[in-house]
Specification:
With about 110 residues, the protein is mainly alpha-helical. The chain contains 5 helices and no strands. It is about 60% helix and about 0% strand. α4 packs antiparallel against α5. The radius of gyration is 16 Å and the shape is globular.
């Protein structure tokens, strides 16, 4: 991810409320809201080697992944959605957690 330092400072940098996952979505959303263009370089090839955290602390990673998704939704979308949509998103995120946690733990 590349971003001018001035823009990064203007939008307040990374939100420290995220531990893992969704912090990049949050940063890009705030950059776009500040008038920046967010682009994806689809032709750039990157090799992502699975992180150490996901091997050594899989439940920790899954918890914070789900927590980050809920934080992002709550921060940007929940206020514009009805109660049933908010409940549905909450259920979709947190009912998925035990399944994802079990799969991560079994790996």
């Amino acid at each position: 991810m590349l971003m001018p330092r001035a823009l990064f400072a203007r939008i307040g940098g990374f939100d420290p409320g995220y531990r893992l996952h969704a912090e990049d979505l949050d940063l890009c959303r705030r950059a776009r809201e500040a008038g920046a263009v967010v682009a994806v370089a689809n032709r750039v090839r990157v090799l992502h080697v699975r992180g150490v955290s996901s091997r050594s602390r899989p439940l920790f990673v899954e918890w914070h992944k789900h927590r980050g998704l809920w934080r992002y939704f709550s921060k940007f979308e929940a206020g514009r959605r009805g109660v049933w949509t908010r409940l549905g998103v909450f259920a979709a995120i947190w009912l998925r957690f035990p399944i994802a946690a079990a799969r991560a733990w079994l790996r």
